Every structure is written in structure tokens, then in C-alpha cells.
Amino acid sequence: MTLIAVGYSRAQVADTLSISEHTLRVYIESARYKLGALNTTHAVARALSRGMIVV
């Protein structure tokens, strides 16, 4: 989430973490569900507001 929050694309995040883009999508979907977010941007906003990530 932190890398997405600072503007990395999904491909860049996956490459940085040495995982596939598919795995990254699964992780993002899981985080969205846990945060009760409608989309990735909403999930990042919720994580930021809750202090879960810092940029």
C-alpha cells in the first residue's frame, strides 16, 4: 500500500517486491476488503487516515 500511495504502478510494486502482478492484485483485494474500501485509492486513503501507512 505504501508503494501505491507514493505513486508506483502495480507493475513497479510487483517488481520491487519480487512477486507477480497477479499476487499483488490478490493482496490489494484482501487489503481493500479488510479496510472496507470501494477501490484501491479508497483503501490507500483509509490506511493513511488510520496511520497504517506513512508516506
Automatic annotation (TrEMBL):
PROSITE patterns for this protein: HTH_LUXR_2
Annotated SUPFAM superfamilies: C-terminal effector domain of the bipartite response regulators
SMART domains: HTH_LUXR
GO biological process, one term: regulation of DNA-templated transcription
Pfam family, any one: GerE
Residue ranges that the Swiss-Prot or TrEMBL entry lists as coiled coil: none
Lineage: Bacteria, Pseudomonadati, Pseudomonadota, Alphaproteobacteria, Rhodobacterales
Entry superkingdom: Bacteria
Organism in which the protein naturally occurs: Sulfitobacter brevis
GO molecular function: DNA binding
Protein name: Regulatory protein, luxR family
InterPro entries noted in UniProt: Sig_transdc_resp-reg_C-effctor (IPR016032), Tscrpt_reg_LuxR_C (IPR000792), WH-like_DNA-bd_sf (IPR036388)
Sequence ranges assigned to domain HTH luxR-type in this UniProt record: 1-51
